[in-house]
Design brief:
Layout (H helix, E strand, L loop, with lengths): L2 H19 L8 E5 L5 H9 L4 E4 L2 H10 L6 E4 L8 H7 L2 E5 L2 H10 L7 E6 L16 H9 L4 E7 L8 H20 L6 E3 L6 H6 L4 E4 L1 H4 L9
Parallel strand pairs: 1-2, 1-8, 2-3, 3-4, 4-5, 5-6, 6-7
Helix pairs in contact: 4-5
Bound molecules: pyridoxal-5'-phosphate.
């Protein structure tokens, strides 16, 4: 078995273990394989191991890879920062966008989503740790923005996404994830029907699953350490 296939299997097992420890149903937690910086062949290999959903951060890299893999029934998620002048190719090429944090970007994605595709699935990115350098809407502004995005016709607001500040140990990591869980509950009490918490990466997904993650975005644990080669 190749490294990618055995890593994928080990990751699935670790995700299932955390889900069971959280007394949750295994089918509630979806694995998004984050393939940024890895070549199309790596994605193809993971597909052969049964993985269908892939996350990419860099638009041009993602489009190149997608073109090389268009014989496969893959589901592409855009998880990187979004420049407002790059929304059209995102609206045209992805099934999900996880990093939406401004109304203007959401409006453009809605206007530019092709009519022959289903509505674009959206996660609102929340700056849950309040870090100045991070993207994401502030916790106390998330409800307003979620209401506005939920009105846009060609989008389907599915839930919330976050990348908390690094914390060591599961107890510490759970603090930020718990805030996301509570925010999702509040939004649903305010009339939205959100079913997605996109949170947890290679180093903290067990903590995220214990606080209700439904999509964990995992790169390194599946594909190995990234080499940006000066790209970013
Ligand atoms: C790169 C990235 C991931 C995957 O991170 P790993 O630590 O490699 O698992 C998840 N989410 C986002 C938004 C990323 O940019």
């Amino acid at each position: 078995m190749t490294a990618i296939l055995s890593n994928l299997q080990a990751t699935r097992e670790a995700v299932a273990k955390a889900t069971i420890e959280a007394h949750r149903v295994v089918t509630e937690v979806h694995l998004l394989a984050v393939s940024k910086t890895f070549p199309a062949e790596a994605v193809r290999e993971a597909y052969q191991g049964g993985q269908l959903a892939f996350g990419e951060n860099y638009l041009q890299e993602a489009l190149d890879k997608k073109a090389l893999l268009n014989d496969l029934p893959l589901e592409w998620h855009f998880i990187g920062p979004i420049q407002s002048n790059k929304t059209r190719p995102i609206a045209e090429n992805f099934a999900w966008v996880h990093g939406v944090d401004r109304l203007k970007v959401a409006q453009r994605l809605s206007e530019q989503r092709p009519a022959d595709l289903p509505p674009l699935n959206i996660c609102l990115q929340v700056n849950v740790s309040g870090e100045e350098s991070k993207s994401g809407v502030a916790l106390n502004e998330a409800a307003q923005l979620a209401q506005e995005i939920s009105q846009l016709p060609r989008l389907k607001l599915r839930g919330l996404m976050s990348i908390p500040a690094p914390a060591s140990g599961e107890t510490e990591q759970r603090v930020a994830f718990a805030k996301m869980r509570v925010l999702l509950q509040e939004l649903n009490q305010q009339g939205l029907s959100l079913d997605t918490l996109s949170m947890g990466m290679s180093h903290d997904f067990p903590a995220a699953i214990k606080e209700g993650a439904t999509i964990v975005r995992i790169g390194t644990a599946i594909f190995g350490t990234r080499d940006y080669g000066g790209q970013k």
